[in-house]
Fold each of these.
Amino acid sequence: MMNISPEKLDMLLKTAGQRLGKDPQVLKNQLQSGSLDGLGIDQNQQRQIGGLLKDPQAMAKFFEQPQIKDMLQQLMKGR
């Protein structure tokens, strides 16, 4: 299982916030509350992400995917 440290999570939120034009703290609050409005994604994608966020096993499996690992490494390089 992949564990993301709070520092790495903050870095990912900062990167995502920059790309989405959102404050990282606002983005974090939205993700924690399950409110994905304003992220530029459709309702179906919001439901999928919401389900993923509520299921720790599914989230761990998601982060173990090679393409997701690669994407995270690329995001962390560009910080």
Note: The radius of gyration is 12 Å.
Amino acid sequence: MIVDRNPLDPYTDLRALGAAYITQDDVASVCRVTPETLKNWRHKGTGPPSTRGKMPLYRASDVADWLDAQIR
């Protein structure tokens, strides 16, 4: 399932979305970075896990796990 709407609010509970796939703009909004920063992270392998292709998608629960790991 792909969530189709305006970018997520930075305070969205990603765990509530579970296995839904969210867009680069959503992740950028939640992480408070630009989509270009996410692109750089993907190329370096340092960002949250994503699908490959022209339009990378991110599983909401994976992004939540990645954010938790950054805080620790």
Note: DSSP finds four helices and two strands in the chain.
Amino acid sequence: MKRKEGESAREKLKRALDLEGLSYLGDLLELRGTHELDARGCEGILLYSETCIKLSMKKYVLNIEGEGLFCSSYLAYTVRVRGEIASLRFEKREDKK
């Protein structure tokens, strides 16, 4: 795919992946099986229980649902969640339109 004049590499990637509606690609989720998730770019923990953890990311809220969930570390905007992860769900942040 040829880069349009004045287009950055990030913009080219968004276009190639058909992500034109997204203006931020800085968050990174790394899932290892169903037992461990690293969420980079986390701005805060909104809800914390053994069955649901909600993380405030740059432009969305990440809902992690499962059993025996816990945050094993949180530093440098990266949260590591461990436990039996059953689902991930993304909600648009109302304050970030």
Note: The longest helix spans residues 9-16.
Amino acid sequence: MNYEFDQTKDESNIDKQGLSLTDADDFEWETAVVREDTRKANPREVKRYVSEN
């Protein structure tokens, strides 16, 4: 899979998360364990998300 991203965003992600977006190239998607996020959403975030879409 090919990924495209802004270099500035990648640098920001490295600063904030300690991960480069290029790390997705080495991620083993086929064997990943995926779980549903069951945390309660912040109502302000839900409103913002709904209004942007």
Note: The first helix runs from residue 7 to 17.
